[in-house]
Each structure stands twice: as structure tokens, then as C-alpha cells.
Amino acid sequence: MTDPLGLAGKTAIVTGAGSGIGRATALRLARGGVRLVLGDLRPERTAAVAAEIRAAGGEAVTHDGDVAEDAYIRALVATTVDIYGRVDVLHNNAAFSIAGRVGDITDDEWRTQQRVVLDSVFYGIRAVLPHMIAQGGGSIVTTSSGAGVGGEYRLGAYAAHKAAVINLTQTVAMEYAEEGIRCNAITPGPTATEPMLAWLENVPGGPEQFGRGALLRRMSRPEEVAEMVAWLASDAASLISGVVLQGNYRVSSPRP
To answer: What stretch or stretches form a coiled coil here (predicted)?
Structure first.
């Protein structure tokens, strides 16, 4: 399992690895020879992804739980270090959104999305930093969103927390550069994942019409997004830190 990016031998944690972007990223990294620890709320999903990786000759284990809980994140990182001795890459990917205009968002909906979208990223970064510092570096890649750059109709809470993720990413990149730690975010644009496709069932015109509002006039595929993550995780991006890597941005936002 060789890869032109030189990923072989690295160890990575991927959250939200059971489907969508997380699954695609796990499979892509595995093809490059990366050893993986997969986390998700749905053990049956990560078990299937890990089995697929092992069947292709790769290495993967699962450690499932709720990314909104600091104790779980600490255990996830500790498991990775116990098994593989290091953690070279962290892909903060798990996310959750509730549609609704800002005036209709409840306190519980705001806090729930904050915990999954923002708190989980903070917990993940904080947990891996000591290990990355001790080993001389590492790469942190977080899935943000175009909604965090320019807002998104009926996704105000999600967009606000994704914007905070971008700021946190840039701050970590500044603070830990001397320790060899790179921290970047991606904004993949509207991606054909299960939650997105389910949400689009209530949007006039569905996925096809929604995709026309993106820069490339179509929705992104999870496998395309995984290539963005793989590059940022690799030594090929050794000069890249504090960057928000723009994917297939939306240039217009429909109003269902």
C-alpha cells in the first residue's frame, strides 16, 4: 500500500468515521499505508469500515463514543497512543446540525450543536497536543464549512460554531508552530453525505438544484473531500498551516 504523498507509517485518528467524509477519509488514508483509529457514535458503522480496511491489507481499530464528551476524546487518544505509540494525524470530522432560523433556535439546539461541532474539536486538539509535542510534530485537520465563512440560511447555530472552528484552527497553528504542529481546516462545500441528502429531501429541486449553487455547479463527493484531508495530513503539505482549504464553495443559498 504505497502512496505518492508519503503517508505510509503514520497513525491517524478519524472521528465521524462511520460514514460520509469520515469513512471516505479513513479509506483514503488506509490506502496510503496509514494506521487508523476510527471513532463514531455507531459501532456497527466503524466496524464495517475497519473490516473493509483490514480486508484490503490495512490496519484499523475502532474506539466508539460521543465526541461531545471530553472523557471519550481523551480515551480515544490514549487508546491510539497505547496501540501505536504515537498520533501523527487527527481528523476532527464529526458534526451535527439542526435546521431553523436564528429566532427559532432553542437553547438546547444551540448547545447541542456547539458541543458536537465546536467543543469536540477543542477536546480533540487539546488531547493530541501533548503527544504531538513530545514526538516532534503532527497534523490536525478539521472539517469546517462554507457556512462558517459566509453563513447559511436556516443553519445559523451550525454556521456560528463552524466559524469558531476556523478561528480555533488558526490560533492553534500560530501557537504550536514551533513544536512542528500544523493545524488546518477544510471547507468542502455541499457534500453528498447521508445527512445532507436527507436534509435536501425538503429543499425544492433536491440535490441537483442545490448543487447548482456551488462553485463547480455540483455537489462534492466524499471521496474528493478525503483527498483534501489526505494532502493536508501528509508531508507534501509540510509548509501549510493555519489555512482554510476551500473546496466546492456554495455561491448561493436556497431558501426552502
So the answer is: none
